[in-house]
Amino acid sequence: MLSLDAFSQNMGSAKKSSIHKEQIGQVQGEDVFRYSLQSKTGMQVELINYGAAITNIITPDKYGKMNSVVLGFDSLSQYAGNDNSLMGSTVGRVAIVFQTKNSLLTIKITRFLLIFTEV
């Protein structure tokens, strides 16, 4: 079950770098994890494995005050909902191409034929 504070901000400063992994819920029977990365200076990035979405970046402003600089949702259900237009997702057009059968991908002047295979 997803707690309401799964995407809450942790404004505390860090003494050392850290990476934490936490299960925050499920979408269509698949576990979803939140990864929190924090630097020695306290900058923090949070992302989830659902859509490779960045859910939060906390960094100092020009006065040194830690603030979130990411526009996002408050809960996993919002990221998984129908109203989400891929908010925070880092997945680009290459992932979308794989959803179609036998697609052509052009990078600069080189074309690549992507063959669909069922898994």
TrEMBL record:
<protein>
    <recommendedName>
        <fullName>Galactose mutarotase</fullName>
    </recommendedName>
</protein>
<keyword id="KW-0106">Calcium</keyword>
<dbReference type="InterPro" id="IPR014718">
    <property type="entry name" value="GH-type_carb-bd"/>
</dbReference>
<dbReference type="Pfam" id="PF01263">
    <property type="entry name" value="Aldose_epim"/>
</dbReference>
<comment type="subunit">
    <text>Monomer.</text>
</comment>
<dbReference type="InterPro" id="IPR011013">
    <property type="entry name" value="Gal_mutarotase_sf_dom"/>
</dbReference>
<dbReference type="InterPro" id="IPR008183">
    <property type="entry name" value="Aldose_1/G6P_1-epimerase"/>
</dbReference>
